[in-house]
Design brief:
heterodimer; A: 113 residues; 58% strand; B: 114 residues; mainly beta; 7-stranded mixed beta sheet; 4-stranded antiparallel beta sheet; globular
Amino acid sequence: KNQVEQSPQSLIILEGKNCTLQCNYTVSPFSNLRWYKQDTGRGPVSLTIMTFSENTKSNGRYTATLDADTKQSSLHITASQLSDSASYICVVSALRNNNDMRFGAGTRLTVKP
Amino acid sequence: DTEVTQTPKHLVMGMTNKKSLKCEQHMGHRAMYWYKQKAKKPPELMFVYSYEKLSINESVPSRFSPECPNSSLLNLHLHALQPEDSALYLCASSQLVGSNQPQHFGDGTRLSIL
């Protein structure tokens, strides 16, 4: 079982609408959680990174939340634009090793006009 | 434009060919990574270099051979690949190896094995 589960698998919304993507994890001990945006045919780009003590972090129209107690994170996109169409990947790191990063399968978001 | 540059963008090769993928960054990062990404799947870690030394090899077959000639360059040498090796190969870098270090990704090389 993957230690990072994302939902929904895919999502279609109309331009201008808001949406929220979910990430649940079991990675332990927790170090940090990142949200990446990956456009088709491009490499992932970091949107936010949050450590244990951070509940919310914003990057423009993107707002990530973290509940370390319930091991849940969300990425909220406000006033969506066509350019938001991409895969959004949740990555959770453990404190165990130098590079113990666990990738979620991603949510494929399509924003339609 | 990304700060991590990968070449070529696309590569088609036969199973008997030898080719190399290249990755370059000039951010002064001392950690560099190779990932493999299949369609609609997240990236899978292959190799990690720290200060030009291989620190992690995620049980990658020997037909993939990484090389870090200096702190700015990372190569992936390919030989006798299989059709299932067709994928997007992503390079990334971070200041240091560490789970709280943000990784900067290149746009990848799309590899097709005939």
